[in-house]
Amino acid sequence: MIKKPNIKNLISVLSYLLIVLFSISMILIAFLWDNEKTTIPEINFSETKVLNTSNYKSLLRSIGNKEIETINFNWVVDTLEAHPYVEAVRVSRHYPSEINIEIVEREPIAIVNKRPIVLLDRNGIVLPNEPYLSSYNLPFMSNFNSDSLLYPPGKKLYPQSSGSVFHFYMGIKIDMLAFTTTYQN
Q: Fewer beta carbons within 10 Å, N or C terminal of the chain?
């Protein structure tokens, strides 16, 4: 005598099989999605005013193909802040595959008239001369000590070079900004 298959048992087995297949497919999809989100196809920089972002991208070449979880963001910040034109950096992760870097640059406000030319920012930090910064219309400070050791790039201006005059100049510049109409006349 041939036994007829029980319909309830068949439905039960098929439902268990469907649940197992669904679970396996979800695990596979999650694994593939996880691998996709950890690679970094792109590092985005905020707009910069002084230097081109390619100057900063070249400093971070070593993180180009690393997974997002393996990148040491403190190293990224320290590397970028070591650049003389960088005042501050903020790095953020944007899943699944982006890193955004915001840079606040030091802007030159005066030139010490010596060879080679020395640029200064508002805090008295010595900036290296970049060839394409010649388009800046900056005041020249003349008749100062021309010893190159007094103007270390990326460091604060030494007082014995022209520091006190620079701070006097900054006071005048702030006053001029406060009294714009007087300055324009």
A: N
